Amino acid sequence: MEYKDYYQTLGVARDASQDEIKRAYRKLARKFHPDVSKEPNAEARFKAVNEANEVLHDPEKRAAYDALGKNWRAGQDFRPPPGGGGAHDFRFSPDEAADFSDFFSSLFGRDFRGGPGGPGGVGAARKRRGQDQTVRIQIELEDAFQGATRQLKLEVPEAGADGRVTTHARTLSVRIPAGVTQGQQIRLSGQGGPGTHGGPAGDLYLEVEIKPHRHFTPDGKDIALRLPIAPWEAALGATVPVPTLGGPVNLKIAPGSQTGQRLRLKGRGLPGDPPGDEMVLLEIVVPPANTAEAKRVYEHMAEQLRFNPRAELGV
What is the pLDDT of residues 6-61, one digit of tens each? Predict the structure, then answer.
């Protein structure tokens, strides 16, 4: 579904007062009322204005809407946060609900039992669970391996007595468990949006993003490493040191190894049950012939080995 920018619909700033919202709504409602308006798509525009006003004139709904953040754009593809889709459980009469969009109902729910002012209806003050929130957190690959503690700063919306929505800073100390992977979500129970009328707070989900590493490339719990080796190490075999997230280990290179060959260091990836592996990709690196002695070595090899790397091509 598409994200709806209710502030843009009413033509007001995000920090507009309740009076400014009321004036903007009345002006647009008169302009697009289907009974009198000659504007194109007047009925659709009228419904959009009513929906925007339904959210922004109510401090509770406005705070829930603002909790989505400021970076959304009208028409952008919108996916409700985990636990969203009616988590606020506001109630409306069937006539009112018919004019609300899918975007609106994904945030506030549709419960047609009762009516305005009736038992459990619009006017009823019920305990409502706070909105779940999702925040992306960037970590180093070493943090994913060892675990870490990070300070997370959040901007939390809050409706004042005058209906104006403001934000205040909130800092959380977050423990990143060892073994987290790219895209994994860490759930912090009760650390999301505040509940209303004594309702419980929502949950906060941390979506892990692992920063690029200079040596390793993660793939789930496995990590990959390109390992440069000398031609003689590949030809004769060797035991060479290899970096891992837990420190260097020795790796045996078999005689006759080739570029592109993969070797596995079992259990040397990210921790878990079972742990991931480190996949080592061999890459033969040829020393430069930048001295007279180096050139003589290569010329001697050419004479003695009589090796044609293109023999299988028939040339």
Answer: 999 999 998 899 889 999 999 998 898 888 888 888 888 888 998 999 889 888 78
- pTM metric for this prediction: 0.59
pLDDT of residue 276: 97
Radius of gyration of the chain (CA): 31
Those residues of the chain that have pLDDT short of 50 are: 83-88, 93-95, 97, 111-124
Q: Let me know whether 146 and 224 are in one domain.
A: no
Residue 84 has a pLDDT of 46
Does 113 fall in a domain? no
Whether residues 66 and 152 fall in one domain: no
Whether residue 13 is found in the same domain as residue 98: yes
**Residue-level pLDDT at 115:** 37
What is the distance between the alpha carbons of residues 166 and 155, in angstroms, rounded to a whole number? 10
DSSP symbols for 103-144: HHHHHH----SS-TTSTTSTT----BPPPPEEEEEEE-HHHH
Domain end (from 210, 238, 265): 210
Domain count, the chain: 3
Domain edge (last residue) among 179, 210, 241: 210
What is the per-residue DSSP string for the chain? Answer: -B---HHHHHT--TT--HHHHHHHHHHHHHHH-TTT--STTHHHHHHHHHHHHHHHTSHHHHHHHHTT-S---TT-B--PPTT-SSTT-----HHHHTT--HHHHHHH----SS-TTSTTSTT----BPPPPEEEEEEE-HHHHHH-EEEEEEEEEEEE-TTS-EEEEEEEEEEEE-TT--TT-EEEETT-SSPPBTTPPP--EEEEEEEPP-SSEEEETTEEEEEEEE-HHHHHH-EEEEE--TT--EEEEEPTT--TT-EEEETT-SS-SSSPP-EEEEEEE-PPP--SHHHHHHHHHHHHHH---TTGGGT-
